[in-house]
Automatic annotation (TrEMBL):
Keywords noted in UniProt: DNA damage, DNA repair, DNA replication, Hydrolase, Magnesium, Metal-binding, Mutator protein
Organism domain of life: Bacteria
InterPro entries with a match to the protein in the record: Aldolase_TIM, MutT-like, Nudix_hydrolase, NUDIX_hydrolase-like_dom_sf, NUDIX_hydrolase_CS, NUDIX_hydrolase_dom, ThiamineP_synth_sf, ThiamineP_synth_TenI
Name by which UniProt lists this protein: 8-oxo-dGTP diphosphatase
SUPFAM superfamilies according to UniProt: Nudix (SSF55811), Thiamin phosphate synthase (SSF51391)
Amino acid sequence: MMTRESFGIVDVAAAVIMQPDGRFLLTCRPEGKPYAGYWEFPGGKIEPGESPLHALDRELQEELGIQILHAEPWITRNFTYSHATVCLHFFRVIRWQGMPQAREHQQLAWQRPDQVTVSPMLPANAPVLRALILPPVYAITRATELGVPAALQQIELALQHGVRLIQIREKTMEKDVLQAFAEKIISLAHGTGAYVLRNSDTILPDTCGTDGIHLTAPQLMALSSRPTSGDNWCGASCHNSEELYQASLIGVDFVVLGPVLQTSSHADATPMGWRKFADLIRDYPLPVYALGGMEPDDQAIARELGAHGVAMIRGTSRL
Ligand SMILES: Nc1nc2c([nH]c(=O)n2[C@H]2C[C@H](O)[C@@H](COP(=O)(O)OP(=O)(O)OP(=O)(O)O)O2)c(=O)[nH]1
C-alpha cells in the first residue's frame, strides 16, 4: 500500500504547550537525532494508524512525562529538509497533567512569543514563532457608522480589555478625518503594545505609522507576492478555499475567514456556519481568525475548530 511516507512525507505532531501567561515550552533536540542541538516544539513522528492528537499525547508522555488534558488543533505546515519533507501538525496544549521533565535528557526552556532567547531554531519553525505573537482577538473599527468619538471610546475600552490587534477599516471616510482618527488609534494602541493594521481599501498611506496592512479579498487575489516587508504584519480577508490558497501562496501572516455567522455589517452575505469554517481551515498553514457575528464567547468554539482566534467589529464592545 502506498503511504504518505512512501512519497517521502513524514507526518509529525508538535505541541505549543501554553501557560496562562502566554509562555510556551521549547525543547532542544538531543544528540543522535538529525539537527541535534536545534530547538523545537515538543512532539514527534505520527505512527501508522495513529491520529495526530494520539501521537502527540504519546510523544509528550515519552519526552516530558505529561498527559494532555486539553489541546486545540492550530496550524499545519509543510517543510522540506534534505532528509525528508515533514508535515507538521501543530496543536496548542492548554491543559495537561504532570510537570514537564526532560525524560530524554534534553534541555527545556519556557519562552515568550515576542522574546525567544534560545537558538538555533529548527528552520521550519520561524513562521510558527511569528504566528504565536498574534493575539487571540482582532478588533475592526467602524467609525463611519459610530462616529469618531464613539469609535475611539470603543477602541480604548477594547485595549483596556486586552485587545492587541486592530484594523482601521474606514473605506469611505474623508482623508483628513481618517488621518486624524488613525493617528489617535495608533497612539492609543502603541501605548499598550498593540498593533494597528490599515485596510488596503482605505486611503491611508503606508507611511501613516501603522504596523502593516490588511488586504481585501480582491486585492489579495490580484497580488503575486506579499506586499509588505517581513517586519510589517500582513493579513488578508478570505471567504472561500481559492482565497485561502492564494493567501498561503503569497505568504501573508494570517487570514480572516467569514462570514461564519449572520452579521448586520454584511446582512446580504450568506454565512458559512461553523462546520464549513472548520472544513475550510483543516490542515491550513496560516493562523485564521473567524469573522462574522462573533461575540467574545465564540473564542472557545473557534479555537476548538482550529482557528487562532476571532475577529470582531461589533463584538468588541462586549469584551
Ligand atoms: N518535534 C518537532 N519536530 C519538528 C519541529 N519542526 C520541525 O521541522 N520538525 C521536524 C524535525 C524532524 O525532521 C521531524 C520530527 O522527527 P523526530 O525525529 O524528531 O521524531 P521522533 O521524536 O518521533 O524521533 P524518532 O523516534 O524517529 O527518532 O519534524 C518541531 O517544532 N517539533
